[in-house]
């Protein structure tokens, strides 16, 4: 790690929590490649598709307790 990175870290560590969180998010976003942005776009499209299915009644939801019980039964069978 360079001295510059160490110094930046020390300075950033003194920021309020919300500012540190914002800075961390901005740094992570700066590392995202074009491919990752394409994946994010694909996920947004998929989310919209699934919301439309829910809104239209094409699919039905199940209560968490029911889903959890089914998952636990499946795990017990393994």
Number of domains: 1
CA gyration radius, whole angstroms: 22 Å
Runs in which pLDDT lies below 50 for 5 or more consecutive residues are none
Beta fraction of the residues?
Answer: under 5%
Mean pLDDT over all positions: 93
Order of helices and strands: HHHH
| Class inferred from helices and paired strands | mainly alpha
Using the alpha-carbon principal axes, give the shape: elongated
Between the first and last Cα atoms, what is the distance in angstroms? 46 Å
Oligomer: single chain
User: How many DSSP H or I helices?
Assistant: 4
Q: In total, how many beta strands?
A: 0
What percent of the residues sit in helical stretches (DSSP H or I)?
A: over 70%
What features would you describe in this structure?
The protein is mostly helical. It has one domain (3-77). Helices cover 81% and strands 0% of the residues. It is built from 4 helices and no strands. The protein has helices spanning 3-13, 17-31, 34-56, 64-77. The longest helix is centred in the middle third of the chain and has 23 residues, at 34-56. The N and C termini lie far apart (46 Å). The relative contact order is 0.05.
């Amino acid at each position: 790690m360079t001295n510059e990175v160490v110094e930046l870290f020390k300075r950033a560590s003194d920021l309020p929590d919300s500012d540190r969180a914002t800075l961390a998010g901005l740094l992570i976003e700066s590392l995202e490649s074009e491919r990752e942005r394409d994946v994010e776009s694909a996920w947004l499209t998929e989310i919209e598709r699934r919301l439309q299915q829910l809104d239209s009644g094409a699919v039905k939801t199940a209560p968490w307790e029911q889903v959890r019980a089914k998952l636990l039964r499946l795990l017990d069978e393994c």
